[in-house]
Design goal:
alpha+beta; 2,3-Dihydroxybiphenyl 1,2-Dioxygenase, domain 1; nine-stranded mixed beta sheet; 20% helix; globular
Length: 134
């Protein structure tokens, strides 16, 4: 079921500074910021040859990652995203195995414009998992 690693997401306190660090200091290709109001975040993608890094910054005071940044003022890893061929089949298999899908269990459109779901970190060794249909 699980496919390739799509991205690792890092919450950052200063999106412009973080993007500049990856672009200027590491020589990476960095996207322009994209606001995703439905998710309460602004994202920047750092393109690598084998995957991406998603830099996340809260969009608004009620952003779901604002609390994360409140607990981790310097930022830090938020989640890892894996690709799946069929998000509904993957969800159903995960539910049968006892994994918990966050939210209402229905896929939402993610930063890449594709369906995504998040899995409870307590079911995956303390790591929030995102699955994205490709």
């Amino acid at each position: 079921m699980i496919g390739r690693l799509n991205h690792v997401a890092i919450v950052v306190p200063d999106l412009d500074a973080a993007a500049a660090r990856y672009r200027d200091d590491l020589g990476a290709t960095v996207s322009d910021p994209v606001e995703l109001p439905e998710h309460g975040v602004t994202t920047v993608f750092v393109e690598l040859s084998n995957t991406k890094i998603e830099l996340l910054h809260p969009l608004g005071h009620d952003s779901p990652i604002a609390a994360f940044l409140g607990r981790n003022a310097s930022g830090g890893m938020h989640h890892v995203c894996f690709e799946v061929d069929d998000i509904h089949a993957a969800r159903d298999q995960l539910l049968r195995s006892g994994a918990r899908v966050l939210g209402d269990g229905e896929p939402k459109t993610g930063a890449h414009g594709k369906p995504v779901l998040f899995l409870h970190p307590k079911d995956f060794s303390g790591t929030l998992i995102e699955i994205e249909q490709v």
